[in-house]
Specification:
- This protein is α/β, with parallel strands linked by helices.
- The protein has two domains: 216 residues, Alanine racemase (TIM Barrel); 124 residues, Lyase, Ornithine Decarboxylase, Chain A, domain 1.
- It contains eleven helices and 20 strands.
- The strands form four sheets. Strands 2-3-4-5-6-7-8-9 form an eight-stranded parallel beta barrel, surrounded by six helices. It has a seven-stranded mixed β-sheet with strand order 16-15-18-10-1-19-20. Strands 11-14-17 form a three-stranded antiparallel β-sheet, with no helix packed on it.
- Helix 1 crosses helix 3.
- It is elongated.
- It binds pyridoxal-5'-phosphate.
- Pyridoxal-5'-phosphate (PLP) binds next to helix 9 and strand 9.
- The site of pyridoxal-5'-phosphate has 12 residues, from helix 9 and strand 9.
Length: 403
């Protein structure tokens, strides 16, 4: 295995299908989101789920350089990947962990979201068992209406008191999460915001010190809900993907990822030929078809079968028949002289505006952009580009070295 802080390698299996990550766009998005924040507020870059499919380590470093102060993930494993890469910034795990994971979290200096007595018990125990590298930093998660992972206000206050009394623990934050920040009607966001502010008032009323408060995800940050001196927890918008049709991206934010491939083979279809499993596409008039080595196991949603398209030779190339696990077939557009090796933009950022956006693919597949991006599979190499040059590659196969 590599050294602990091995920089991302350039080794690349060379697989034609890869996710290109535009680091200039990512840095610009971080700066654009920071510029929206109210006075005293700061940015927490949410890099859970392998940075929504963009590759957590490189994205985390870039976001920190561009002005994010801290990071957030969903699991201990995700936090460990960042620490192993030598990233020292504060990292918060946003949701529940198993109490059995508490000692590991303490060792890795990970901040935890606390909403249950059981997790706080486990963390307090773990804090007693380790050498005092400073108190363990905790954020109490307050229930205000999402009903997922949050303590009802009275319990949240009791948890905060316990943390404040224990010298091995520190109340680093208090937070809540909105249920409908990405909807046009902000009525429920207003209610949750008021409930959270009232709860913070109770905390202050008891003179319990806390370092920060936070409530806004991307949509709420765009909507102006981050709160003075709050932390904005931004994921999706940092990747240049709109949270929802009702929460469009602010200006200066653009897509970061494009899923790309190259034509593996070009062939002719005659009238009556059918394409793919189930023979759902039947050729009417002679046409050219291209095989593209991307399939649903790469994260290319099978629901797009028969309706989706990609960009080939600067034109729309419609999918023919079903998407298979590892490959699919498109029509070579009229007037395009595609050969094997021709570049294809499957989805995402496309300067020519031909490939479908992640939001468009999500809509066609009956889901949200979050799912399309975060499901880009581990077997797809991530190729990082800055100023038009490849500056890093993360490829699961590159760890095979030597072969
Ligand atoms: C994932 C997550 C976020 C980030 O949400 P985006 O909509 O991607 O900005 C913020 N807060 C919590 C608690 C989350 O789980």
């Amino acid at each position: 295995m590599g050294e602990p802080d091995r920089p991302p390698g350039r080794a690349w299996s060379g697989r034609a299908t890869r996710a290109e990550i535009d680091l200039d766009a990512l840095g610009g998005n971080v700066r654009a989101l920071r510029s929206l924040l109210p006075p005293g507020a700061s940015l927490m870059a949410v890099v859970k789920a392998n940075a929504y499919g963009h590759g957590a380590t490189v994205v985390a470093r870039e976001a920190l350089v561009a002005g994010a102060e801290r990071l957030a993930v969903a699991t201990i494993g995700e936090a460990a990947v960042l620490r192993r890469a030598g990233i020292d910034a504060p990292i918060l795990i946003l949701g529940a962990i198993d109490p059995a994971e508490a000692p590991m979290a303490v060792r890795l200096r990970i901040e935890l979201a606390i909403a249950t007595e059981a997790l706080l018990d486990a963390v307090a125990d773990a804090a007693r068992g380790t050498s005092p590298a400073g108190p363990v930093r905790l954020h109490v998660k307050v229930e205000t209406g999402l009903h997922r992972y949050g303590a009802e206000p009275d319990l949240a206050l009791a948890l905060a008191r316990r943390i404040a009394r224990d010298p091995r623990l520190e109340l680093a934050g208090a937070f809540t999460h909105f249920a409908c920040a990405d909807e046009a009607d902000d009525g429920f966001t207003r209610e949750q915001d008021a409930a959270f502010s009232a709860w913070l008032g109770r905390l202050r009323g008891e003179s319990i010190a806390f370092a920060a408060h936070h409530r806004a995800n991307s949509a709420a940050t765009i909507g102006g809900w981050a709160g003075e001196s709050g932390i904005a927890r931004c994921g999706i918008a940092m990747y240049g993907i709109a949270p929802s049709p009702a929460a469009p991206l602010p200006s200066g934010v653009r897509p970061v990822m494009s899923l790309r491939s190259r034509v593996a083979r070009v062939f002719d279809l005659r009238p009556g030929d059918t394409v793919g499993y189930g023979r759902t596409y039947r050729c009417e008039a002679a046409e050219r078809a291209a095989l593209v080595p991307v399939g649903y196991a790469d994260g290319y949603a099978r629901a797009l079968s028969g309706t989706g398209h990609m960009a080939l030779g600067g034109c729309r190339a419609p999918l023919l028949g079903r998407i298979s696990m590892d490959q699919c077939v498109v029509r070579v557009p009229d007037g395009v002289d595609a050969e094997s090796g021709a570049e294809v933009v499957v989805l995402g950022a496309d300067p020519a505006g031909i490939a479908p956006s992640i939001e468009g693919v999500a809509e066609a597949a009956g889901t949200i952009g979050y799912e399309i991006a975060s499901r880009i599979a581990a077997r797809v190499p991530r190729v990082y580009v800055r100023g038009g040059e490849i500056v890093a590659v993360e490829d699961a196969l590159s760890d095979l070295g030597g072969f």
